[in-house]
Request: fold
Amino acid sequence: MDETSLIAAAQHGDLDSFNRLVINYQDQVYNHAYRTMGEKDAAADATQDAFIAAFRNIRSYRGGSFRAWLFRIVTNACYDELRRRKRRPTTSLEPLDDAGEEMESPAWLADSSDTPEIAVERKELETAIQHCLDGLQEDFRTVIVLVDVNGMDYDEAAVVIGKPMGTIKSRLARARGHLRDCLQGYLELLPSLFRLGDKS
Reply:
């Protein structure tokens, strides 16, 4: 059954069809939530909340990009949680493991095909990127995660955040600039192509 048929069935209350949509999008939605929030457990909660909200409101979906519709829901769930965090701030910028210790990088980012040295470097770079993403304002972080991490085009990103394309482009340019500047603090982790002032 194709996505359009699954959506139509889900709109008529077919839970199995909706569950198939969840399976198709759960990794993308979780990854977006994680990159937006920077914490594994909070991202999992936002993902769950988003799918519950999507099921409850799927009859309101009127066509267009289903992915963008779904990402708008999870983005709002992330914003809600981030606002709650501001009222109850925490000190850690890194996700915690089951023992409550800071993780160098979430396990799902690891690539088992890498050598140990490359895997360590990859984890360190991913941690640096996430740290820099966490430092962005929410609006900038959301746009760069949608476009540069999730591969959405400007139209889809505009649907997700409910802003015109000009706003998307402006926020993306500023977010990329801030991210680039932040990552200059991790020069040793960056490929030479991305090092400002590198002549090689």
